[in-house]
Amino acid sequence: MSADEVHRNDAAGHRFLPVAIDIRERRCVVVGGGPIGARKALTLARSGARVTIVSPALTESLEASEGAGTLAWVRAAFGPEHVEGAFLVVAATDDEAVNAAVVEAAERAGALVCDASSADRSQVIFGATLRHGGATIAVFTDGHDPARARRTRDHIKTLVERAT
Fold it and tell me: Any idea which of 53-57, 92-96, 119-123, 139-143 has the lowest mean pLDDT?
């Protein structure tokens, strides 16, 4: 197989480019306060983003973080005005119609968007990451099997820990 054939085959099977983005002090909005929204919001906050969560209710882990000032909470149902000025918007509700509306509003506002319920509607996906010894390793399944990405990351973690 030639190098061109390898490139064509690889490009046909992968849509996302794994990159790292500095989001420190960038405004990010997560719509949805459940377990998936919590995971995305806390990942963004740990990376230095200014995170606003839009949701009528929050999981306990998010309530504790919001109370500590790590996150801002807009206690409301989603409206398009919530994504104005955002760099990145994450749709993470359990309602397909709301997630679709979030994606549409984010795109109109010029924000990058991740729909946790649909890789096909996403411009950005979150990989399962491992930080160890000054290196970051990210595992992506192009948004189609996040649980598999986490399992693979965890396996890599055991290998890295054994090697050091």
Answer: 139-143
